[in-house]
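Section 5.1 Outputs to date
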Amino acid sequence: PQAASGEQSAANLFRIERVSDGVYAAIARPAPMLNCNAAVIVTADHVLVVDTHSKPSAASALINQIRREVSDRPVRYVINSHFHWDHAQGNLAYPKAFGESTEVISSTSTREWMAREGASRLRQSLAALPKRIADLRTQLAAAKIDGERARLTEQIGQLEAYLKEMNPPEKQITLPTITFNERLVIHRGGREIHLIFLGRGHTAGDVVVYIPSERTVATGDLMHSLLPYMGDGYPEDWPRTLVALEALDFTHVVAGHGLVQQGKSILAFFRAYIEEINEGVARGVERGSTLEEMRRTLAPDGLRSLKMGDQMTRLAREGQGFAGVPLAGAQLQGAVAANVTDVYNYYTKRRGKS
């Protein structure tokens, strides 16, 4: 939803859900410029938030929602699970709202990637928006149904607002103020909050936030309930990192996208899917298969991992909640093909270089 000015209604950006004692999930609603979920952890004297979404205004909206629905205590710590734009471009909102004593924490690698890639990647994405907006205006001019016209008008307004908010790119990237290599533990009010780098996976520096007393973990995009983005991933390492995640004692998962998870069944699927794509592409590269051949071989209908339990139905449902479109049919085929392409590029272009 979006106001007439083109700015998305702050009241509708997230749905707050209590996960365990003092731990909440802010589930992002579908938006043209993607927002991640956030985990909100309340301690005796402050609040800790995991991930900051695609823009400062989204983070500000969540800050207001936390004050209304969760706690009026100040946010003292902000965690970047990794460097991607939809998880870290809202960092600026927290010191602005709570003062310079607010610390932004990440792995060492995540800060390095943000410093190196953050502004340039944002600049590239902003440069592509005018064409996207123009295409939507063309669709709007041809639209006959009121509902479709309203949807396109909403999308155009939100993209124009994002373009205005995020310029100039160099001023939008707020880097973490504290970094660590393997584990950092915050001790507050008798509760331990563990920030852990388990190994490379979705990126080179993924951090999970683990609250042992509540058997709850926030995973960022290292593991969530949809299909992964693998363009910056390490498919050889990722399954091993997920094994290390599975070894933690948890029953609740606040992931970077999708619904709150109970138990470890989705984690088992997610790991099996990455293993299957990685093994299939690695074998194809060894045999000299073309990318198109691998896309055909590793199509959804032939993947064992997608037949685990009721994954196809679950993915369709979760895709609807995440993007407003079921992750099924052509959408599912496109997502799997993109994963195959990204893993192929890893083996043929990126492996051993970062």
